[in-house]
Amino acid sequence: MRTAYQYRLRPTKQQAVKLDRWLEMLCAQYNYLLADRFNWWEQNRSPVNACPLVCHLPELRDNPDYYSQKKTLPQLKKTHPWYSDIYSQVLQDVVKRVKVTFDRFLKGDSSGKRSGKPRFKARNRYRTFTYPQMKEGCLQGNLINLPMFGKVKVILHRPIPEGFKIKTASVTKKADGYYLTLSLEDKTVPEIKPNFNPDKITGIDVGLKEFLITSEGETVAIPQHYRKAQKRLRVIQKRVSRRKKGSNRRQKAVKQLGKQHKKVADKRKDFHFKTANWLLSKYDVVAHEDLNTKGLARTRLAKSVLDAGWSSFLSILANKAENAGLLVVPVSAHNTSQDCSNCGEKVPKKLHIRWHDCPNCGCSLDRDHNAAINIKNRAVGQSVLKAQRLLSNSRIGCEAHTILASS
């Protein structure tokens, strides 16, 4: 199992200058390698038996792939000696990043979805570099030893658990400073609970009136972090727009705006983690709707949907449940608000109608509460199917058998 811990870095002034210099050089190399791939693709993407409208003879060379571009790095250090200051694996990770970006553009990801055309990075848009491998014992007290960079002070606000091994380290520049992200490996597989208490299965319905409501009727108020910060953001944004482009005063205002946006994002993330912990401390199985958040973010409710951050919350909830040996079950969102949770009959209602009144059985309750109960009912059957899939894993097969028996 892999998990990530993020810590605040406290570099000295000289180290901060060196970090910025590394990021600028890596950004230039990223843009060069991406341009190399684009040049070959533009000249050679037509088939042999076809000719584009603008016909020219391309340069006869092989397609620049991951391995051929990695072979150019030793020559890069000869022609540009200042690149010798950067750790070799950090430079190789730039090549890998270009490969992943370009392949996602041409072929798509694992689900077949293609991304847009990759863009060249500006200096202030390239913020992270990664060490793909870290030696054992690289973290000594409150110092992290980064190869070919040196020891940097780290604010260890929480210790690394025993048995966890540091695999990779990433340094990221954010609006308020530098951060270190450690990717940790734990070889112990979290055990799925052998049986689930029927009283500890719940369904949640996320919304914009309340952040979520459980099938038991418990609600969590929506905080609206962005909307509450809009007044302050408007003042700072106006300050940025009134200052001359390229001036030092404008750069200071942009930095201040970035800090304010980060503050809003941190508040939202903290709220998501606390809400996920509260749910998993009370319930063994949490069911939710399988929402198309990207589609909802294109509607007129986009600002409210993105401010709530449903996608981020559900991702955090699933990861926390996996670490705790619990289950998070996504179910179909079709007609969860329209179907009656008591009799199952469909009761059509428009979005502005917030109360569910069933003419068939007389069930009367809040629309979102009704949807949460429907989500829980759908998840009861799906949890059995999920347990069947767990049977294929020999390490937790016995636990899955017990789940099936209890269901």
Automatic annotation (TrEMBL):
Keywords: DNA recombination, DNA-binding, Metal-binding, Transposition, Zinc. GO terms for biological process: DNA recombination; transposition. Residues 1-45 form the Transposase putative helix-turn-helix domain. One of its GO terms (molecular function) is DNA binding. The keyword Metal-binding applies. Residues 310-375 form the Cas12f1-like TNB domain. Pfam families: Cas12f1-like_TNB, HTH_OrfB_IS605, OrfB_IS605. It comes from the Bacteria. Residues 189-298 form the Probable transposase IS891/IS1136/IS1341 domain. The keyword Metal-binding applies. In the C-terminal section; belongs to the transposase 35 family. This is Transposase. It comes from Desertifilum tharense IPPAS B-1220.
